[in-house]
Design brief:
Bound molecules: S-adenosylmethionine
Number of domains: 2
Strand order of the largest sheet: 5-4-3-6-7-9-8
CATH class of the largest domain: Alpha Beta
Radius of gyration: 20 Å
Oligomer: single chain
Shape: elongated
Structural class: alpha/beta
Helix content: 40-55%
Order of helices and strands: EEHEHEHEHEHHHHHHHEHEHE
Number of helices: 13
CATH topology of the largest domain: Rossmann fold
Largest sheet: 7 strands, mixed
Distance between the termini: 43 Å
Strand content: 15-25%
CATH superfamily of the largest domain: Vaccinia Virus protein VP39
Length: about 325
């Protein structure tokens, strides 16, 4: 489960809180992708460019990184991070960034005149930068509009969905995607509340979840609203559907012998990745690679990360 609240944020030198996103399993990802000079790499979830910064160093000036993200705002951070990397060391790859879902990587490659790619990375979920922006509505830690769209031009916000979803479907989603045992009580509370007033702020949703939980469950190790927020976010962004489409696009685009690495944070995502790699690739990770205790200490978000990787099979002649 992605338990992120404010993980990845840190205090700046002046004491101000500065959102940063620490790339998870960075060394493990670079190693299993077997990067070398001249490769064409798709980072399908480029985010703030944490993994991408290291990738452009590894593939050097003859390489090409094509980065995609469905959040246009975060691409501004990626662009800045990658420009800084280029300034710090001249020997980095060509970079092209596209505001597209990873399922559209073929279109992004075609726009760059590239017939395919040698490596694909998908690092799923949300970035700490998105969680740290109250106006994006992802976080239960601060009040904001109940939005949660990764792509701000997408038609349905979390508030829209909560206004219309049937109680049973809401309970099922909170149970399935949030693994929340009190899903039915929470769904009932939300549906009762929306008859009185629309649920449009994150603070309202937090209060409703808290009110629905029995007292002991309000004092759990993780914030009691974590699971419900995660479930709603996964629905609003169709995250499992996106993953299936992105994996299919990756094997389409990879050259035979190319590698696909996926970092997931949710058991359902990990299951989809595991079965997909088994069916479509030669699997390099019989068991998923997980973060070390050291990494978990310095970046709690890495606690639930699972890295899997496969090689696209050579096609029979
Ligand atoms: C965990 S962050 C990636 C962080 C990045 N690896 C880094 O080190 O900075 C996930 C990113 O994937 C993006 N994302 C999620 N689903 C996506 C999709 N279907 N297509 C493209 N981008 C997606 C999110 O907007 C977010 O920026």
């Amino acid at each position: 489960m992605d338990e992120t609240s404010t993980n990845g944020s840190s205090k700046g030198g002046d004491g101000s809180r500065q959102p940063v996103h620490l790339p998870v399993l960075l060394q493990e990802t670079l190693a299993i992708l077997e990067l070398r000079e001249g490769l064409v790499v798709v980072d399908g979830t480029v985010g703030a460019g944490g993994h991408a910064r290291a990738i452009v160093q590894a593939i050097g000036p003859s390489g090409h990184l094509v980065g995609l993200d469905r959040d246009s705002e975060i691409l501004v951070s990626a662009r800045a991070a990658l420009a800084a990397a280029a300034e710090a060391s001249g020997a980095v790859a060509r970079v092209s960034l596209h505001h597209l879902p990873h399922a559209s990587m073929q279109a992004a490659l075609a726009a760059e005149g590239l017939p395919g790619c040698d490596r694909v990375l998908l690092d799923l979920g949300v970035s700490s930068l998105q969680l740290d922006r109250p106006d994006r509505g992802f976080s239960f830690m601060v009040d904001g509009p109940l939005d949660m769209r990764m792509d701000a031009s997408a038609p349905m916000t979390a508030a829209d969905w909560l206004a219309s979803v049937r109680e049973e479907a809401l309970a099922d989603a909170i149970f399935q995607f949030g693994e929340e045992r009190y899903s039915r009580r929470i769904a009932r509370r939300i549906v009762e509340a929306r008859r009185r007033t629309p649920i449009v702020r994150t603070r309202q949703l937090v209060d409703l979840v808290m009110g629905a939980l029995p007292a002991p469950a309000r004092h759990s190790r993780i914030h009691p609203a974590t699971r419900t927020f995660q479930a709603i976010r996964m629905v609003v962004n169709d995250e499992l559907g996106e993953l299936e489409r992105g994996l299919a696009a990756a094997v389409e685009c990879l050259t035979p012998g190319g590698r696909l690495a996926v970092i997931s944070f949710h058991s359902l995502e990990d299951r989809i990745v595991k079965h997909f790699l088994r069916a479509q690739c030669e699997v390099l990770t019989k068991k998923p690679i997980e973060a070390t205790e050291d990494e978990i200490r310095s970046n709690p978000r890495s606690r639930s990360a699972k890295l899997r990787c496969g090689v696209k099979k050579e096609t029979a002649a």
